[in-house]
């Protein structure tokens, strides 16, 4: 399994004022034992936009991985202190993740037309 953390934004592109150095990212769970083209599941853990719940992240991605998917876990922008509104930033993070996976589908041995999110 290829497991690596990939950032979705360049530091100069990401502008959420309460980020404090955080940049949204995805963790990959890629079948690398072959070059079979596989469907993709992007796991978007819950957490009420305050946190990204770890109990809804890797365990879910590994379940889809075992079912033959190449899986990704999105760690999106959250607002733990609830001081500055998130606006649509989490949705921008998800959109960026989907575009990133589709753009790099060859590297991920993924079918760009079979990218789903949970």
What does this 3D model show about the protein?
By secondary structure, the chain is an alpha/beta fold. The chain has a single domain (5-117), classed as Alpha/Beta hydrolase fold, catalytic domain (Rossmann fold, 3-Layer(aba) Sandwich), CATH 3.40.50.1820. The chain has helices spanning 58-66, 89-103, 105-108; strands at 5-7, 25-29, 38-43, 70-75, 110-117. It has a 5-stranded mixed beta sheet with strand order 1-2-4-3-5, with helices on both faces. The longest helix has 15 residues, at 89-103. The chain is globular and about 45 Å long. The mean pLDDT is 95.
CATH architecture: 3-Layer(aba) Sandwich
Helix/strand-derived category reads alpha/beta
Supply the number of structural domains: 1
Written as H for each helix and E for each strand, in order along the chain, the element string is EEEHEHHE
Terminal Cα span: 21 Å
Average pLDDT metric: 95
Low-confidence stretches: none
What is the CATH homology-level superfamily?
Answer: Alpha/Beta hydrolase fold, catalytic domain
- Rg over CA atoms, rounded to whole Å, is 14 Å
The proportion of residues in beta strands is 15-25%
Q: Please report the first level of CATH classification, the CATH class.
A: Alpha Beta
Shape type? globular
The total of beta strands comes to 5
What does this entry show, briefly?
With 118 residues, the protein is an alpha/beta fold. The chain is built from 3 helices and 5 strands.
Secondary structure: elements and pairs:
Layout: E1 5-7, E2 25-29, E3 38-43, H1 58-66, E4 70-75, H2 89-103, H3 105-108, E5 110-117
Parallel strand pairs: 3-4, 3-5
Antiparallel strand pairs: 1-2, 2-4
């Amino acid at each position: 399994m290829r497991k690596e953390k990939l950032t979705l934004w360049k530091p100069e592109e990401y502008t959420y004022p309460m980020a404090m150095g955080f940049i949204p990212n995805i963790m990959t769970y890629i079948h690398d034992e072959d070059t079979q083209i596989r469907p993709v599941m992007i796991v978007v853990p819950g957490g009420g936009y305050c946190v990204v719940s770890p109990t809804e992240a890797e365990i879910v991605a590994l379940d889809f991985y075992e079912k033959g998917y190449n899986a990704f876990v999105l760690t999106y922008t959250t607002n733990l202190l609830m001081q500055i509104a998130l606006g649509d930033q989490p949705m921008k993070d998800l959109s960026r993740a989907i575009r990133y996976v589709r753009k790099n589908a060859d590297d991920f041995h993924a079918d760009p037309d079979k990218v789903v999110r949970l």
